[in-house]
Design goal:
The complex is a heterodimer.
Chain A (H helix, E strand, L loop, with lengths): L1 H14 L23 H15 L16 H12 L1
Chain B lengths: L6 E9 L2 E9 L8 E6 L4 H5 L1 H13 L2 E7 L15 H18 L4 E6 L1 H12 L6 E5 L5 H18 L8 H9 L4 E3 L2 E3 L1 H8 L12 E8 L8 H12 L4 E7 L13 H15 L8
Parallel strand pairs in B: 3-4, 3-5, 5-6, 6-9, 9-10
Antiparallel strand pairs in B: 1-2, 2-4, 7-8
Helix pairs in contact in B: 2-9, 5-7
Classes of the chains: A mainly alpha, B alpha/beta.
Chain lengths: ~80, ~290
């Protein structure tokens, strides 16, 4: 849960979502659903995740599926961080 | 009553890689100099985006008795030299020169202050300098040089693709060029392969953080910010090795990265009070 709220805050910060970030649930779609999340923003989100948790994401580790939903992104972070 | 204000002037130092541009903030005439600060900026566009915050912090420190020099290392900003010729060792030399110049100005404790890659440079200088400064201030330090350049290449290549450059650079091709010892150009910056190699070999956690007091500040957009797990891990490792470390997070925007120039006033306030506590309020008392 802790991880989930940290990922939520990263999205809030990088994408300037404000209170809209509070509504994100595990099955909330991200790519295609958040207009702020273009490819540039995806790179910024990955960078923010790397900085916060202190791991490195290789380019071939991520795909559209990673950013499909809020839950899939949290799961990805958990798998790297855990 | 007339209250005198900090003054600011530009100055070029004679660096080994060409003229070194500094902007120097000095205390008001009626305030005795208590400490000197040398600021090391972040890399690339981050340097330009954070100029305003650097100036705000410098003015705030000058107002309490600081002589603050904002440095453009060689190949950046107004300083001489090509960006593509800049190396980590060259930047070390620039820091040493500007630090020596500051020390000549007055006999007060010196503080190294850096933002992002500038903070990693500050920590690396402190770890390797013959004599350590009185303190270092780390703002949102880069923890891993390798992660940093990964992000820089990734962001820049995405930017180029979004910008419409068909078949634009991809990070793997750039990596291959670097590995072959060739300079690359990313987002308008020419990068020396030696610079990238040197930075990528740096990890904050492996540097000696115990040679001077450390004031480490992070910003986060949330209302009740917490230190990131990555920073907490490094801080506790440094403390195990005897570092005297004051780490905290304050609320504010990622001003070095935002498209619009933004400010984090709480970061300035938190930094100013940390410096005041060490070099102003207890001047003469604490070493």
């Amino acid at each position: 849960m802790e991880l989930q709220s940290q990922v939520r805050d990263i999205l809030r910060d990088v994408l300037s979502l404000g209170s809209r970030a509070d509504g994100l649930k595990a099955d909330s779609p991200l790519l295609g659903a958040l207009p702020e999340l273009d490819s540039m923003a995806v790179a910024s989100v990955i960078a923010a995740i790397e900085d916060r948790f202190g791991f490195i994401v290789e380019d071939d580790e991520i795909s559209g599926a990673t950013f499909a939903t809020f839950g899939s992104l949290v799961e990805f972070v958990a798998s790297k961080y855990g | 009553m007339i209250v005198s204000k900090p003054t600011v002037s530009g100055r070029f130092l004679a660096g080994s890689g060409g003229p070194l541009a500094t902007v120097v903030w000095e205390p008001p005439k009626d305030i005795a100099p208590r400490f000197a600060v040398l600021y090391l900026p972040p890399f690339g566009d981050e340097m330009n985006r954070s100029r305003r915050m650097a100036a705000l912090q410098a003015r705030a420190l000058a107002a309490i008795g600081g002589t603050v020099a904002l440095l453009d290392p060689r190949g950046t900003g107004e300083s001489g030299g090509d960006h593509g010729a800049a190396t980590w060792g060259g930047w070390h030399a620039d820091v040493a020169l500007a630090w020596a110049w500051l020390a000549e100005q007055s006999n007060v404790p010196c503080v190294l202050w850096g933002l992002r890659l500038g903070a990693l440079l500050a920590a690396d200088v402190v770890a390797t300098a013959r004599a350590a400064p009185a303190a270092m201030v780390l703002w949102q330090p880069i923890a891993s040089g390798r992660a940093f350049f990964n992000q820089f290449l990734r962001l820049a290549t995405v930017q180029e693709r979004v910008g419409g450059a068909e078949g634009g650079a991809d990070a793997k091709a750039l990596r291959l060029k670097l590995a072959a010892g060739n300079p690359i150009e990313v987002a308008g910056y020419e990068l020396n392969p030696a610079l990238v190699a040197d930075v990528e070999a740096k990890d904050l956690v492996a540097l000696d953080g115990s040679r001077c007091q450390v004031v480490w500040r992070e910003v986060s957009a949330v209302a009740a910010p917490t230190i990131s797990p990555a920073s907490a891990r490094i801080a506790s490792r440094w403390q195990e090795h005897g570092a005297e470390l004051d780490i905290a997070a304050v609320s504010g925007p990622s001003f070095w990265a935002t498209q619009e120039i933004s400010e984090a006033p709480l970061l300035v306030a938190a930094t100013t009070s940390a410096i005041a506590a060490r070099f102003v309020n207890h001047a003469g008392g604490k070493p």
